Amino acid sequence: MDLENTSLLSFLKQEQILNAYWYDCLRYELDKHVYYYGNHYIRSLENIQNGKTEKTKYALKILRSTVKEKFSKKSIDKSNPVIISNAYFNFNEELSKSGFTVIQPPWTNNRNDWGYYDAGIVNLCLKIKNLFEFADFNYLISKEFIQGLEKFSELLKLFITKEKIAALIVPNDENFFANISIKIFKDLGLPTFIFLHGLPARYNSIDEHRSDYLIVWGKKLKEIYVEKGMAENRIFISGHPKYQKVIKKSIEFSLDNILVLTKTIAGSPHSDGMILSDRGNLIVYLLSIQKVLQQYNVKKVRLRPHPSENINWYMKFLDRDFFVPDTDNLPESLNKTSLVIGPVSSVFLEAVYYKVNYLVYEPSINNINILNHTIEPPFDKSDNRIPVAYNEETLFEFLKEKKCVSADLLYDYLQTPFDVSFMQQLIK
Predict the structure, then answer these.
(1) Are residues 226 and 262 in the same domain?
(2) DSSP per residue over 183-246, as a string?
(3) Which of 135, 202, 240, 345 could anchor a disulfide with 139, C-beta 3.0 to 4.6 Å?
(4) Cα–Cα distance between 143 and 374 in angstroms, integer?
(5) Residue 168 structural domain
């Protein structure tokens, strides 16, 4: 046993309880059984497993998909190249406008697109999702379960071949279905894409490297991935499908309506290994911001958690007179915000798009933040247009100086208008 790099999943790999192929496919889902715990998450594994409503939802989904066998299967329009995609936002709608037929994969909750698939593969997807959440960990590494996954792989491969699917687009390459579908498409010699969600907080040589191509929002993100070792010809720039035009307007400083973002812990570690974080520091992070703001006589801020987080858990630790939960959708929230203070987040770019000032706060020592993660570009001072405070003193000075993020940086990080015409050369 390698004590320097030990974890449950790495032990299973070292002892060949899982071979390299299935380790890579299953790591993300299995790690949830170890790390995705605690009431700071809305849907932590314990909450799911103990919640009767969750079990009922899955039972109903399986029933509905089983009933589908009685109905006629929908035909796919093959007048254009057919793509399976569950990319974020309205990416699929924009892709359809570019001359492609787009269908959602069978593991999504889009019941309308289930009709393109045989009921057997939809049922199997639901069963696998159900087992990932409710089965014992030991069963998820058993030969019986692996055989079920092999059956899914065979059915998906047959569907791709029979229906002449041309390409795959997924939002990441870590979760089981995205991971294994990339492998299946590559086995068939078909192109695979990841449409990246915004600004990553970390980079490694495994995640985002499994697909043939990576699609990012802007040229600066491409430059960072190239600096981190990815081949330039694998990376394409599309922009964001919801943000088609950048409004030319300066960003102003104001403390009138402050939005504070929480700092989150990932429910499953990334493929390069687990970094343990103290969840108490999620609260410390917010108390530290409160301490600085109160020196400027700020009486109240709005608090916005990550969508995976439980605001009720946070509020048990916080001053309810100072922190008020923000429940608006993100555009509505940003439209009434004068200043955002938060960690490394894709909301940073969205705030700048809405011409809202964003001060990045990442308490850290020697480039390691409060949750033990490395501060990555462009939040490592490599772009001086981004104000990043690494301690309370710097955050205090930023407020004193009325520091603002540069609105001009958006042109480097968010291409407009949205354009996926390059895919016509890559997908036949």
Answers:
(1) no
(2) HHHHHTT--EEEE--S--S---SSTT-SSSEEEESSHHHHHHHHHTT--GGGEEE--BTTB---
(3) 135
(4) 38
(5) 43-244+419-426
pLDDT tens column, 288-307: 999 999 999 999 999 999 99
For residues 284 and 373, membership in a common domain is answered with yes
Assess whether 177 and 313 both reside in one domain: no
CATH of the domain at 158: 3.40.50
For 18-27, letters b (16+ CB in 10 Å) and e give beeebbbbbb
Return the HEC string of 283-339: HHHHHHHHHHHHCCCCCCEEEECCCCECHHHHHCCCCCCCEEECCCCHHHHHHCCCE
Report helix, strand or coil for 279: coil
Q: What's the number of domains the chain is made of?
A: 2
Do 141 and 205 belong together in one domain?
yes
201 and 272 share one domain = no
Query: What is the CATH number for 306?
Result: 3.40.50.12580
Long-range contacts (CB closer than 8 Å, 24 or more residues apart) made by 225-234: 227/377, 228/203, 229/205
73 and 199 inside one domain: yes
Query: Are 102 and 96 contacting, i.e. CB atoms less than 8 angstroms apart?
Result: yes
Are 410 and 248 contacting, i.e. CB atoms less than 8 angstroms apart?
no
Q: What is the pLDDT of residue 156?
A: 98
Tell me: cis bond preceding 331? Omega within 30 of 0 counts: no
The edge-to-edge listing of strands for the beta sheet with 235-237 is 101-103, 82-85, 165-170, 192-195, 213-216, 235-237
